[in-house]
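Sequence, please.
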């Protein structure tokens, strides 16, 4: 199988979920490529060309960091080839993490992925689904109301203030577009710096105000879903508790210093997955991250969920085998069905 992973910027990439998946695909004997979101070339009437690095068979490494370092080096050359030679394009760049000077990168990856999908290459997650959920907090609002905290999305400061009062003066404020725990604020009873915080968020666009869940003080659980079900290997589940870095920090993102721990499956998580999974399957989402606090789903990551790089450290299996094996089966299904299955169907077939 020929598989290409789309990332934002190779020089800024770290040995996280995407890198361990690239490494595993290579180790399973596949022709494995990595490209940046700025590496597409389009000419009308032709297949999209992609500028990428192919992981060389001679690559020597001991760890994921070694693997990435070798891939970044000038000894592995950038080359351009036609995307119609690919079996799979795995889109892993996160548009919401792009800086302002790379505004062009936010939508371009999905646009080119859609064109490549139309050529017949399997795109994961489904490109149309990712385009639909580009603002993942709006996609989140399509999910059943009883598994989510109360919230309001607005650009009206008075609406935010009214929601704060109605929510016992305890809410979380964050930009509608964004991720990684950045620009998220807890607004308590004292309402400190309200004007400054709200104005700074409104400068970025729409604001989502969400009721504060006290259980977040114990961290949240990242639920890794594949094909609409909890990722599983050897009887272990892809459930990672992310614990806050200190008692005064309500955000538990690993990128902000949060600590990863093994988590247990609860009836509440089972219910959230049962109510969320069918929609994800219908829409064509292969690999998704859910963030859960107690019985509430607080966020959904459809673009580039992380967590796989931490699993072995906390006593869980290396799930990357399971993910790549699933992709291998999809390519086999595609061949057996003579390319008659849609990308959406293939994306979530087990």
């Amino acid at each position: 199988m020929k598989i290409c992973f789309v990332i934002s910027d190779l020089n800024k990439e770290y040995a996280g979920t995407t890198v361990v998946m690239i490494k595993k695909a290579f180790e399973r004997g596949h022709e494995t490529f990595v490209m940046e979101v700025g590496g597409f070339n389009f000419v009308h009437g032709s297949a999209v060309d992609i500028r990428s690095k192919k992981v060389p068979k001679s690559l020597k490494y001991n760890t994921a960091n070694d693997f990435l370092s070798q891939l970044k080096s000038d000894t592995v050359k950038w080359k351009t080839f036609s995307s119609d030679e690919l079996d799979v394009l795995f889109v892993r760049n996160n548009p919401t993490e792009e800086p302002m000077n790379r505004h062009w990168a936010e939508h371009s990856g999905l646009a080119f992925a859609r064109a490549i999908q139309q050529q017949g290459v399997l795109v994961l997650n489904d490109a149309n689904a990712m385009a639909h959920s580009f603002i993942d907090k709006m996609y989140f609002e399509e999910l059943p109301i009883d598994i989510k905290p109360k919230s309001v999305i607005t650009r009206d400061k008075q609406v935010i203030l009214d929601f704060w009062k109605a929510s016992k003066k305890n809410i979380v404020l964050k930009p509608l577009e964004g991720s990684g725990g950045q620009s998220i604020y807890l607004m308590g009873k004292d309402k400190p710096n309200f004007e400054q915080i709200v104005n700074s968020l409104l400068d970025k666009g729409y604001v989502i105000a969400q009721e504060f869940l006290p259980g977040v003080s114990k961290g949240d659980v990242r639920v890794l879903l594949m094909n609409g079900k909890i990722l599983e290997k050897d009887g272990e589940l892809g459930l990672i508790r992310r614990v806050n870095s200190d008692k005064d920090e309500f955000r538990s993102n690993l990128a902000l210093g949060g600590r990863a721990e093994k988590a247990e499956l609860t009836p509440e998580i089972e219910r959230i997955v049962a109510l969320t999974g069918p929609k994800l399957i219908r829409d064509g989402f292969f690999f998704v991250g859910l963030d859960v606090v107690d019985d509430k789903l607080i966020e959904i990551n459809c673009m580039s969920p992380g967590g796989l790089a931490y699993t072995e450290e906390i006593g869980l299996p290396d799930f990357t085998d399971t993910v790549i094996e699933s992709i291998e089966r999809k390519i086999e299904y595609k061949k057996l069905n003579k390319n008659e299955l849609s990308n959406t169907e293939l994306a979530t077939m087990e």
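The CA atoms of residues 94 and 303 lie 6 Å apart.
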